[in-house]
Amino acid sequence: MSGNESRFEQNSEGAGYLPGLAMDFVIFGFDQDQLKILLLEYRNTNLFALPGGFVKENENLNDAARRVLGERTGLADIYLDQFYTFGDLSRYDQEPLRTIMQAKGMDPKDDHWLLRRFVSVGYYALIDFRRAAPTPDPLSDNCVWYTLENLPALMLDHNDIVKKALETLRANLDRKLGGNESWAAPLLAKAFTMGELQKLYETILGQKLRRSGFQRKMLGLDILERLEKQYSGGAHKAPYLYQFIIDK
Amino acid sequence: MSGNESRFEQNSEGAGYLPGLAMDFVIFGFDQDQLKILLLEYRNTNLFALPGGFVKENENLNDAARRVLGERTGLADIYLDQFYTFGDLSRYDQEPLRTIMQAKGMDPKDDHWLLRRFVSVGYYALIDFRRAAPTPDPLSDNCVWYTLENLPALMLDHNDIVKKALETLRANLDRKLGGNESWAAPLLAKAFTMGELQKLYETILGQKLRRSGFQRKMLGLDILERLEKQYSGGAHKAPYLYQFIIDK
DNA sequence: TTATATTGTCTCATTATGGAACAATAATAA
DNA sequence: TTATTATTGTTCCATAATGAGACAATATAA
């Protein structure tokens, strides 16, 4: 992190990084029946942004994504999906970043590398809300979970990026219904009830599903192992707990 | 095309273009029951590549894609899909491009902008085989249709790019089956038989489909208009001709 | 005129899905 | 202790979708 700090402040040329290329992340977590994503906050500016990063000159693009994801969440081995590359000219707006840098006491020149035009590769990730250690980058003051329905206005085209990420995630859910479902594992506890799994689907898809049909389909996929243990805590029949079958 | 020529030869800095960012195209056409894509050939080098291009400094990424697609095929208003961005270090191999430039009588220095590392945004397009005017770029000698099953070994990671494009196209076919099917229009004649449409699906998906089921599903989508005209030419009952319903 | 290949449609068994019912039961209220 | 309540796991059935094939229709070739 110490070497990280310097790339923003001391190095006005962005040496060691590919010029004009950035990455932005839509990092999904699931907590209390809500989908959330990680946002960066900039104090005194009222600006919010997606976590992002840059690609080193001797680094694979997707490796850079994993590295930055680790830097922001402390997590490795994450379900990570490159979903779109954003390259509109409307992204090229020096104002927000200049405001942020000035709020940090910097006085960047017009040709500071961070103020140039960037094309940004979008990734989304599904991570374990409970294990994540949200960490702001050197320019930000905070890295916080925001409920998807409650997002503030974000910098540049970042709201569009979130929208596209969610669309892609939904489409992939449909397609992956037949395959290995372990994508959902990081979003749930190790053992979970069928109701919790259904709630996760409903939250991502933004619509209610029929209970019996959902149970029928999930059990039919042979990806769930029913545990003998039972959950307790509600004034009703105790549901089974399930785990995803690994390997498969 | 005149201004195009100069960007490769006279301008060793690539001025006016975003550095390190390229686009590669998998341009699909359909002819004689075969799926084909456009390849560039380089004489005296035995090298083949996907058509590609660069993004101007004051141009949207997707607009650049449409521009380059027009330059290579002469076509506008094309179904164009950005499917993945390729950024592995293994792409960074000066040899093929140096060979090509030398075969053209150029002697580029090691830091010639074309010999630097590029991250490339992949697009695929479905175009009308009959209306296309394949046009090589200034570095290439030829722009030719190749059957997908007969592709030669391509430069750099271009075979991977083709593979990924086909995977994406197939996945999108499945998803779009319920929606508007006009994506298929550029690949077929204005009027076509159900058998021709089925053949197109089978070729893209790489598998046989059941005839009665295909007909049932297609007619049920309400996207086809049955024409009174009938095709003739085979020693059998004449099939109906169909058109896609526009607007819808 | 007959044969042949392919088409448009239909049939029927099988499977999947929508929607609801039902008994089971863990906690809570009486 | 007993009744109540909310939620679960399962079953049921009507409807829809799908797989696999049968059959008559017919434009050309023999």
TrEMBL record, chains A, B:
<dbReference type="Pfam" id="PF00293">
    <property type="entry name" value="NUDIX"/>
</dbReference>
<dbReference type="InterPro" id="IPR054105">
    <property type="entry name" value="WHD_NrtR"/>
</dbReference>
<dbReference type="InterPro" id="IPR015797">
    <property type="entry name" value="NUDIX_hydrolase-like_dom_sf"/>
</dbReference>
<feature type="domain" description="Nudix hydrolase">
    <location>
        <begin position="20"/>
        <end position="170"/>
    </location>
</feature>
<protein>
    <submittedName>
        <fullName>ADP-ribose pyrophosphatase YjhB, NUDIX family</fullName>
    </submittedName>
</protein>
<dbReference type="InterPro" id="IPR000086">
    <property type="entry name" value="NUDIX_hydrolase_dom"/>
</dbReference>
<dbReference type="InterPro" id="IPR036388">
    <property type="entry name" value="WH-like_DNA-bd_sf"/>
</dbReference>
<dbReference type="InterPro" id="IPR036390">
    <property type="entry name" value="WH_DNA-bd_sf"/>
</dbReference>
<dbReference type="Pfam" id="PF21906">
    <property type="entry name" value="WHD_NrtR"/>
</dbReference>
